[in-house]
Design goal:
The complex is a heterodimer of chains A (about 190) and B (about 400). Chain A has about 190 residues and is of the alpha/beta class. Chain A contains 6 helices and 7 strands, in the order βαββββαβααααβ. Helix content of chain A is about 35%, strand content about 20%. Chain A is globular and about 45 Å long. Classes of the chains: A alpha/beta (about 190), B alpha/beta (about 400). Chains A and B meet through α1 and β2 of A and β1, β8 and α9 of B.
Chain lengths: ~190, ~400
């Protein structure tokens, strides 16, 4: 892994995007890595666009400001593609992971992704509906991000999801989220 | 063995307070501090600490409750931010003047009006001359470590002064970072048993708190307070040495970063210091001798040691995350200028005001300032002595 990996999440309030960034940070702690997870705090409203960030590094993380040049861009809500330039500042070799059921070619065109940039899609909302019965795409997105970045193994991530969700939710919800995470990991596809 | 966790700054400080297990904690919520006291209240409810939690109706009451509980002979904590600290103002002086070692994390936030919940240093800067000790923290680890050390410093029998531990609102309080927790037993042993001094509840030895002292002895009392302030830095260093033995983490009165052979330097508090260090490294890679000084013990201000550490530089910029309205420069600038005042040979000083109300401080801001300093070091000519940066024109 490179010294530093910077991730930017684009979601809407209420989709669990901030939780996903937090779980990812926790999962990446292993192996002595340094981690950060932080959202952009605005007026907190369900449905409002929000950003969250991760930094994962083998070295101490001293930078305390938003991620401006992300290597990974996670788009939890594809309707944001119409209103926000999610590719802003992304590196030339950036990886985009988009939650969508739409035609992958259409997404790639919409992002105006460069030739060095990779675009992955996963139908995280459908997976969430199947597994949890609610449109909470964060767990499958988390699985997809782990697959495309190789940050942690699927087993390790599932352990962490269990730990994070176990504090608040019933066994049924935990099991649903574990299954959703696993399916996100397995179903993410490159265009 | 240290436990490595990924937690928010608020969570880290709440955990430090749990490990210390104080006698009394007065609580009133205010963003961005609320999460810290909410987590601590959980510890109380779950029986993890024996602390008596007092839910009060304002911060004025919160600090008043702390004063009463501390004078009674307890180890006492509270926490606040912004307007909450401002509302405590009257009682802050009573805590320090009465020499009560109350510990208070301050999660730095901008002051109203206009209303703003984000991080800047206006709140704690307003309280900098209240006689409290102030320790400032770059990240969650430092906030945790400073909180634990604050008990030993404030409660030292030669000092007995209240102490604030400052950390940046949201940037640190609500961001998750990797930190190392000490073992509960280690912390307990490090802070030790609380030793009350002249407690009101010791009814065998009645004492009087809050006396009237008029023209006869008020001035002597204040002189004594000034003398005590001069002892604080020595105690801070002793406590830091003990803390390093336990944790392996080194603390001083301030942190110097690549400063010894530097020609240009930044002075900057808290989280923005971390961002700046990465940029200092970039300038070093380009062969420019840049460095940084980050104050930690900001009150009482160790002006002699600070001046000594800076006097060899050619050009220095003090970055303030607060302005002193009606004054000439930002608050930290005034202290740094004072620390260099006695020297004949000293750096050119400039002042930038940044990050008010949570405005992002980005690497490009540090780059611009360091480039400007490199120019000043070369030519000696200064374009502007005080300026707002990262601001819309």
């Amino acid at each position: 892994m490179a010294d530093l990996l910077e991730i930017r999440w684009h979601g809407r309030g209420g989709q669990g995007t901030v939780t996903a960034a937090k779980v990812l940070a926790d999962a990446c702690l292993s192996g002595g890595r340094h981690v950060q997870a932080f959202p952009e705090y605005g007026p907190e409203r369900a449905g409002a666009p929000l950003r969250a960030y991760n930094r994962i590094s083998s070295k101490e993380l001293r930078m305390h400001c938003p991620v401006l040049r992300p290597k990974v861009v996670s788009v939890v809500d594809a309707t944001l593609l119409d209103s926000i330039n999610v590719g802003d500042g992304a590196t030339g070799d950036a990886i985009f992971v988009v939650n969508t059921s739409r035609d992958p070619k259409e997404i790639r065109a919409k992002l105006s992704a460069g030739s060095g940039q990779k675009v992955y899609t996963v139908d995280a909302t459908k997976i969430a509906m199947d597994c949890i019965g609610r449109a909470l795409p964060n767990a499958p997105m988390l699985g997809a991000i782990c697959k495309v970045t190789g940050l942690v193994s699927l087993d390790h991530l599932l352990d962490d999801v269990k730990k994070s969700f176990g504090k608040k939710f019933s066994q049924k919800i935990i099991d649903g989220n574990l299954e959703a995470t696993r399916r996100g990991y397995e179903e993410v596809r490159e265009i | 063995m240290a436990q490595v966790v990924a937690v928010t700054g608020n969570e880290a400080v709440a955990n430090a307070l749990r490990q210390v297990n104080p006698d009394v904690c007065a609580v009133y919520p205010i963003t961005p501090q609320t999460e810290m006291m909410q987590r601590f209240a959980n510890f109380v409810s779950n029986g993890n600490v024996k602390t008596e939690l007092i839910l009060v109706e304002s911060e004025h009451s919160s600090m008043s409750a702390c004063v009463g509980a501390s004078a009674a002979g307890g180890r006492v904590v509270t926490a606040t931010s912004s307007q909450g600290l401002a509302l405590m103002y009257e009682i802050l002086y009573i805590a320090s003047g009465t020499r009560l070692p109350i510990i208070m994390p301050v999660v730095n936030r901008a002051l109203s009006a206009p209303l703003n919940i984000h991080g800047d240093h206006s709140d704690a800067m307003g309280a900098r001359d209240t006689g409290w000790i102030q320790l400032w923290s770059e990240n969650a680890q430092e906030a945790y470590d400073n909180t634990i050390q604050a008990f030993r410093i404030a409660e030292h029998m030669d000092i007995r002064l209240p102490a604030m531990v400052c950390l940046d609102g949201f940037i640190i309080s609500h961001s998750i970072e990797r930190i190392e927790y000490l073992e509960d037993e280690e912390v307990k042993k490090f802070v030790g048993e609380f030793k009350p001094l002249n407690p009101l509840l010791d009814i065998g030895h009645p004492v009087s708190y809050g006396p009237l002292i008029l023209t006869d002895y008020y001035m002597e009392y204040r002189k004594a307070q000034d003398e005590i302030a001069s002892k604080v830095s020595g105690i801070v260093l002793k406590v830091a040495a003990d803390f390093e033995k336990m944790s392996g983490r080194k603390y001083g009165l301030f942190e110097t970063y690549r400063l010894d052979d530097a020609e240009i330097g930044l002075i900057i508090l808290n989280s923005a210091a971390g961002t700046s260090k990465d940029v200092v490294d970039e300038f070093r890679d380009r062969g420019i001798k840049a460095g940084l000084l980050k104050p930690r013990l900001y009150r009482p201000f160790p002006f002699m040691e600070t001046g000594e550490a800076l006097k060899h530089l050619k050009a220095v910029c003090v970055l303030d995350r607060a302005d002193a309205f009606g004054g000439s420069y930002g608050p930290v600038f005034l202290d740094i200028a004072t620390s260099l005042y006695p020297y004949k040979e000293k750096p050119v000083l400039i002042n930038k005001i940044y990050g008010l109300g949570g405005r992002d401080y980005l690497p490009e801001h540090a780059e611009l300032v360091l480039s400007e300093l490199a120019g000043i070091a070369k030519t000696g000519s200064v374009r502007s002595y005080k300026e707002y940066i990262g601001v819309r024109e």
